[in-house]
TrEMBL record:
This is Alpha/beta hydrolase family protein. It comes from Frateuria terrea. InterPro entries: AB_hydrolase_fold. Gene3D superfamilies: alpha/beta hydrolase.
């Protein structure tokens, strides 16, 4: 009974829009300011700095060395990974042995903006503005400037960037405005809305390209009107992110649905990560509004086309169109994500997973080709590149420490694991 009341109280608290935020001279109790945990006051709105400032923070990796290469480990609005007490084991696994910087994200707990909720109600256009990715780009640059002033970067103030998935798009946005400060960039399992549109592609990958049988099964189930389309699409998408093992689970669930057997779907839905009803509820909370802003930025142009938005061959779009229905119904303007990649003269390595359910390797190749010093690598694995971690660690370290032209890097890139 007590546990139930406590849980209900926490839920109610999470459902209430923020009324205030951290004072500009304060620190979060769980994160006192020290050599590795730094605070900086940034504009709420870079287009109108008279609107005030908010208390932002960034965190340096446990073995951070300001004299060596420094990597900005970027996260975008979809990635709620950086809080006052980040899980360094996850980040160390991505960039082993490297000095990196994590930046708290505007709109992610605990950095919510009361300005987005006039009268206690979400204002979609304010959310798009204040939680938008171009504001995030400016935050990243101000953190870089703060580190230069604190002598936490090499004398030239130049950095390196790592961005995966949606953060890979954010990395490309940062290069558009501040590429002169970046030596080299690693983009992993990512896409590019503008390049996809230029090629006549959708932003996300068609399931039929990866698993024609699964795509056909989803279409057949939809024609029958059986099951819960967004729930099945959500489960298909999340399982697909696991690579080949997830695709096998998808086939099991879909074959059972075709036989009117709901048990495999129900069994998998016991996993909170795969439970559509739970996720839809969580994405309705104020703490998830920045997540929805970034989703709308990246998917909105495609979702405005009903023929695309409701295609069973694009499971991500089927369930995202439900999550973003208020933005779509209100025709909220989208940011301009067209980028001129030819202006950036640093090195770019783009790594794609052969079995990535989110992004086709073709878009990774197109991104690499758009940069003057771009290199594309396709390796086995799904969206999370779950295979061959030793090889991936070696490639990332060699690239960040020595660059594309170094002998060790070139040898690794020329002999990737078999994608068969």
């Amino acid at each position: 009974m007590v546990a139930g009341l406590w849980g209900y109280g926490r839920w109610r608290q999470a459902s209430i829009p923020p009324l205030d935020r951290l004072a500009l001279d304060a620190a979060y109790p769980q994160m006192p300011a020290d050599a590795h945990h730094r605070y900086v006051n940034l504009p709420v709105d870079y287009a109108d700095e008279s609107r005030g400032r908010y208390r932002a923070f960034y965190v340096l990796s446990p073995h951070f060395d300001p004299n060596g290469p420094v990597v900005f480990f970027l996260t975008d609005g979809q990635m709620e990974l950086v809080g006052p007490n980040p899980d360094f084991s996850f980040f160390d696994e991505q960039l082993p042995g490297l000095s990196y910087v994590l930046i708290g994200h505007r709109g992610h707990d605990p950095t919510l903006f009361p300005e987005v909720y006039p009268g206690g109600k979400l204002d979609l256009r304010r959310a798009m503005n204040l939680y938008g990715s171009w504001q995030r780009v400016e935050d990243i640059e101000r953190v870089r400037q703060d580190m230069v002033a604190a002598k936490l970067l090499p004398p030239d103030g130049r950095i390196m960037i790592f961005g995966a998935s949606g953060a890979g798009v954010l990395a490309q946005q940062y290069l558009q405005r501040y590429g002169q400060h970046v030596i080299r960039t690693l983009l992993v399992s990512t896409g590019a809305p503008d390049l996809a549109r230029g090629h006549g592609w959708t932003y996300a990958r068609h399931l039929a390209e990866l698993d024609p049988q699964a795509a056909a099964s989803l279409a057949q189930i939809a024609r029958r009107g059986h099951g819960e389309p967004p729930g099945l699409a959500y489960m298909t998408f999340q399982l697909g992110r696991e690579g080949r093992s997830g695709l096998a689970k998808i086939d099991e669930v879909l074959h059972a649905e075709l036989r009117h057997n709901p048990l495999p779907y129900a069994w998998n839905a016991l996993n909170p990560r795969l439970n559509w009803r739970l996720i839809r509820t969580l994405l309705g909370l104020p703490a998830a509004d920045a997540v929805r802003v970034r989703m709308y930025e990246l998917l909105g142009a495609d979702l405005q086309n009903p023929a695309i938005a409701h295609s069973e061959d694009l499971p991500l779009y089927v369930w995202s169109s439900r999550i973003l229905s208020d933005y779509l119904d209100a025709h909220v303007p989208l940011p301009d994500l067209r980028l001129d990649r030819s202006r950036y003269d640093g090195e770019v390595l783009v790594i794609s997973g052969k079995d990535d359910v989110v992004f086709s390797p073709a878009i990774g190749q197109a991104i690499a080709a758009a940069y003057p010093k771009g290199r594309w690598l396709v390796i086995p694995g799904g969206h999370r590149l779950e295979r061959d971690p030793g090889y991936q660690h070696a490639v990332r370290r060699a690239f960040f420490l020595h660059g594309l032209q170094a002998r060790d890097t070139a040898a690794l890139l020329d002999s990737p694991p078999s994608a068969n």
